[in-house]
Type I restriction modification DNA specificity domain-containing protein
Amino acid sequence: MAGLQRVPADYVASFPVAEFSLHEQRKIADFLDVQVGATGSLIATRERQIRLIQERWDAVLDSAMSPLGAPKMPVRHLLREVAVGIVIQPAALYVTTGGVRALRGVDVRPWSIGDESEMVQISRAGHAANPRSTLRDNDVVIVRTGLAGAAARVPSSLVGSNSIDVVIARPAARLHPDYLVYFLNSRSGRDGVTGQASGSIQKHFGVEHLKRLTIAIRTRVEQESLIADLEIARVGHGAAVAALTSSIRLLEERKQALITAAVTGQFDVATARKVSMT
């Protein structure tokens, strides 16, 4: 079948394997059952901790962005403009060098933009012909298809670049861009997007969907204060998840190294068992 690779039979037949008696094989298998099982339990615990940390962050963010009883208003009343990135045959504008970077939905993550060096480029003529989709300072870009509703503020490094198939929100003076980003990435924001986005298989989020969302009313000063607090919490959350993710990776590496060492006879499992039990 196309896309499938087969391991040559002679490669498997000639692959070197350490010789162990049946008794030794059973000892190795018993040792690995215990050690791999214990490592697997630790990995499962780390994964459960990540889920709990994510749930706690979601709860904190949702409580901050959608407090009970707070007055709300449609997002459209807080925007100067809503635009959409290039949607009509954007691939026809692609160039490999000498063009203008164009941000796509796949480049957008909640709160951040992916590797800018990996972005596509469009011709300078194509860029000039699409001024409304050119990214500006304080713009918020929102994914239309796939991870619909994921939002990030445009960094200064991308101001003047173009965009493809994303929603571009341009906040009015009384709406802080980061306040909109935090709302859209909150559980309430995501639920609003999911409830309004169309498409049975893949969700599509559009301009009208954004305008209909309602957001808690706060003064600009209140927004800035809340953003500062949430940023501290988000950084702490990210650091905790990163530490646990790193721990999982190290445990996976240890598990694989242990299996390799045991089946290739790099240590005596009987001795290793005694050491591990003390």
In short: The chain has two domains: 20-71+220-278, 72-216. Residues 22 and 28 are 10 Å apart (CA to CA).
